[in-house]
What does this fold into?
Amino acid sequence: MSRTSRNFIIAYAVLVGLPIVGLVGILKSGRTLAAPISVDGVWKLQTDPVRLAALPCGKTLAISPEAALAISQSGRNFTLSLSDEPKSAASGVLDGTSLKASLVPSAPWSEEAGCGSGHEISLVATVDPKANPRSLEGTLSVDHCPPCAPVEFRAVRLATPVKKGSH
Amino acid sequence: MPDLFKLVLQISVILALCRIVGTIFRKIGQPRVVGEMFAGILLGPSLLGWVAPGVSAYLFPASSLGFLNALSQIGVVVFMFLVGLGINPQELKKHGHAAVLTSHVSITAPFVLAAFLALYLYPKLSDDSVAFTSFALFMGAAMSITAFPVLARILAERDLLGSRLGTVAIACAAVDDVTGWCILAYIVVLIRTAHSSTSIWVTIGGIVAFALIMIYGVRHLLRHYETVYRERGHLSENLLALMLLLVLVSALCTEWLGIHLLFGSFLMGAIMPKEQRFVRYVLDRFETITVTLLLPLFFAFTGLRTDIGLVKGQEMWMYCGLIILVATVGKLGGSMAASWLSGMPVREAAGLGTLMNTRGLMELVILNIGLDIKVISPALFSMMVLMALFTTFMTTPVLAVVCPDRFLREGPAKVPAQDAAIGTLASADKISA
It folds into this structure.
C-alpha cells in the first residue's frame, strides 16, 4: 500500500468514520428525549352551541354540530382555527398536557357578534394522552366578563389518514 | 372543478412577481432563482398575508391551493429529472482521493452537526408523534444538501467551470445530492411504513429491486436515445414524449413503492446517457416551460406555507440563528477543512466550502417533503426556508471575498474543459439564470 493511500485511509477514518460513530451515539442518546405531546391535527368539537352563542363573542365561534378545530403545532406553540373560516384564529401554548389559547375574532365578525371592548375568548383544555384517538377536555370563557360562565367542551382528534400520493 | 379564473390569476401574479424580483436580484449579482424563492415568500403569509390579508385571502384561498400545488409538483417532477440528467457522479473519480474525501466530509460534517443540534431542537420544535431518529436524520439530510444547479450557475458566472475549484465543487455536489436523496428516501420509508401495514423490509426490498432494474436494465435501453440522437442530430416528438412518459412512470413507481414521486424522476434523470451534447439537447427541450412557468409556482406554493410570523420572540429567532450557524459551519467549514487537509490552498478551500454551502431550490424541495410527512413543524419549516435563503444568498458575495478574480487568475490552474461536468453546467444557465 502506497503512503498516499495509507494517508487517505487514515484521513477518511478520522474525518468520515469517526463522525458516523458519533452520529450513532447521538441517535441512541436522542431516543431518551421527550418532545411535547402531539396535538397537531383536526379535532371534532362537541359543546353546547346555545350556551356558547349566549356568551359575548360566542357567536364568532359559530360552532355547529360538525364543527372542527384545526391545530397546527410547532413544539410547545400552536395555532388554532375553527372549521375553515377565518372568523377566529388563535395562538396558544402547550404546557405538559395543558393547552391555553386566546381566540381573537377577526374585525368584521367581532363587531357583528358584539365582541367589542377587548373581549377575547380563552380556551383552556387538558389532553388525555392515553385516549385513542386522543381527546381534549376544557372550557371556553370570555375575558374581562365576570358574569359570563365558562362553557365546557370536548374534542376528539380525527384520525389522520396516511397521505399516500397526497404530496 | 378548479376555479379557472382564480387559477390563471394566481399564475399571472406569481409569474409577474417572480420575474420582477428575479430581475432585481440579478442586478445585485445574485442568481435569478434566489429572487424567485424570495418572491414566493413575499406572496405568502409572511408579507402579503400580513400586510393585506384581504387580498391574500382573495388571491390564494385555501380551497384553491390544491390545484396550484398539483401544477407546481408536476414542475418539480420534471425539474428533478433535469437535475438527475445533469448529475454525473463518475466525475468524482477523475479527481482522485482528495475529492472523494472532500465530498464525503461535506456530507458527514453538516449531517452530524445537524443531528447534534436536533438533540437541542427536538424537545422545543417537534412533538411526540415524530421519532427522534426521523427528526435527526431529516435535519441531517436537509443540512447536507447542495443546490447543484445554483452552484453550477455561480461557477459559470465566475468563469470557474473549467477550474479545479469548479470541477471538484460540481463532483462533490453531485455525490452530496445523490447521498442526501438516498437518506431522505430512507426517512420517508421509515415514516410512511409506521402508518402502514406493509413491513419496512418489504418496502426497502421493493425500492432496491426497482433501483437495480433501473440501473442495470433500463439504463442500457436508454442508450438507444443517445444512438438515435447521434445518428439524426435530433429526437422525434414521439421519442421525447416517450422520455417524459418514462419519467412519469418511474415517478409513479417510487410513489407506489412508498417513497415519493420525486425519487423516481430523479433516478430516471440520473440513469440517462451523459454525453454532453445529448444532455444539452434534452435540457433545451424540457427546461424552458419548467423553469419559467412551473418552478415559480413551486416557489409561490412554498412561500404560501412559509410563515415567518411563527418565528416569534427571541427564543425562536435564536433557534433560527443556530440553524443557520450550524448549517454554515457544517457545510462550509467541513468542506473547507477536508479540501485544505487534502492539499488545496486555503483560499481555494474556502471557495469550495462557500460553493458547497449553496442550498437553494433543492433545499426547498426537501423541506416541502419534510412538512408533508410532518417530520418537521411549520415553525421549523419556516426557519429552514430562511436558512436556505440565507446560505444561498451569501454564496456570491462570500465567494467574491474569499476567491477574488485576481486570486483565481493567478492561482489555481484550469483543468481541461473535458473534465468539467459540462452537461450539467450548461443546464444551469437556464435553470438558475
User: Anything to note?
Assistant: The interface with chain B takes residues 4-5, 8, 11-12, 15-16, 19-20, 22-23, 26-27, 29-31, 33-40, 72-77, 79, 84, 86, 162-167 of chain A (CB under 8 Å). The longest helix of chain A spans residues 3-30.
